[in-house]
C-alpha cells in the first residue's frame, strides 16, 4: 500500500445477469450477418474475453457457438424452401464459403448441406409426391 492510496481505487462491479442477459442472444440481421460480439461486450460494459466467459456461464453456449447455430438455422430455412446454390446460401447466412457451412452441418446434423436439402428440402418433397407410387 502506498501512503494515502489504496492499491485498487474500487472493486469492479461483478458481472450481473442484467448486464449479460440485457444483451440477449446474438441476432442475424436482415443481411444475415451476426451482430459483433465486440459491440455486445461493449454494451454490457465488459471486455470481450469477460463477456464470452459470462455469456457461456449464463447461457451454456459460447457466443461463437450461438452465432454458428443461428447461421445453421438460417441456412436450414433457405435449404428447405429454395433451390439457391449451396455457395449462395453459405454466403447469405454468414458462413463465407460452402466448405465452412459443410463442416458446420456435418458437425451438427451428420450430413452435408446438399444431403440435408435432398432429404428435407421442400422441392425434394414436392418431387417425391409427384412420382407415382408402385
CATH topology: Arc Repressor Mutant, subunit A
Overall structural domain count:
1
End-to-end separation in angstroms reads 88 Å
Look at the structure and give the CATH class. Mainly Alpha
Structure classification: mainly alpha
Give the topology string: H per helix, E per strand.
Answer: HHHHHHHH
* Beta-strand residue fraction: under 5%
* Helicity level: 55-70%
Radius of gyration: 22 Å
Contiguous low-pLDDT stretches (5 residues minimum) are: 1-16, 29-34
From the coordinates shown, what is the CATH architecture?
Orthogonal Bundle
Number of H- or I-type helical stretches: 8
Looking at CATH, the homologous superfamily is Homeodomain-like
Q: Indicate the mean pLDDT.
A: 75
What is the approximate shape? Answer: elongated
Main sheet record: none
Number of strands: 0
